[in-house]
Amino acid sequence: MSIFGRFRINGTGGNAVPEEMETGKNRKTVDNKRIDVMSLERDIILALKQVYDPEIPVNIYDLGLIYELRVDEEHNVYIQMTLTAPNCPMADYVVDQVREAVEDVPGVVSATIDLVFEPVWDKSRMSEEALVELGLDAD
Fold first, then answer.
1. Cα distances (Å, whole numbers) of residue 87 to 92, 97, 102, 117
2. Residues with Cβ within 8 Å of residue 18, at least 6 apart in sequence
3. Is residue 77 assigned to a domain?
4. What would you measure as the largest C-alpha separation in the chain, in angstroms?
5. Which of 8, 29, 60, 88 is most open to solvent, judged by the fewest CB atoms within 10 Å of its CB?
6. Residues 6+ apart with CB under 8 A from 4
7. SS (H, E, C) 80-96
8. Helix or strand (DSSP H, E) at 97
């Protein structure tokens, strides 16, 4: 290392580039991808809030039926979700509604929905808004 800092010789023309600039450029690309994925996640959550449980007048997101939401850098979405009861006769309908809502979000490439029943859903997973909507708030 010289008194001028660390430099890296890039592959095009042999120009010396300060390492922090090189790292900063790469970090910016990663951050842009992260921001893009984060904004897509936000849009997916908004879409999920438009899907309602057929028997309860609250959206599935605020009910706490979404256990996991992942979006990869290629904008493929993975959702792990449950239902309020394992024997729900509308299970296929709800899963199809979730898939359609997510795939309709601009930028989503594909959506995989995994319906699980472990851990068992209970009202502790509900948002404060859902509890108030259903009159179950503690206050």
1. 11, 18, 24, 10
2. 5, 6, 7, 8
3. yes
4. 72
5. 29
6. none
7. EECCCCCCCCCHHHHHH
8. helix 91-103
| 57 preceded by a cis bond (ω within 30 of 0) | no
In a domain, 46, yes or no: yes
What is the count of structural domains for the chain?
1
- The torsion angles phi and psi of 115, rounded to 5 degrees, stand at -90, 120
Q: Is 3 inside any structural domain?
A: no
The pLDDT assigned to 4 comes to: 46
Return the number of other C-beta atoms located less than 10 Å from residue 72's C-beta.
Answer: 11
Q: Residue 88: which CATH number?
A: 3.30.300.130
Collapsing DSSP to helix, strand or coil, 112 comes out as: strand
Burial (CB count <10 Å: 0-12, 13-18, 19+), residue 71? buried
The residue range of the domain holding 63 is: 14-133
Structure confidence by residue, pLDDT tens digits, 56-78: 899 999 999 999 999 999 999 99
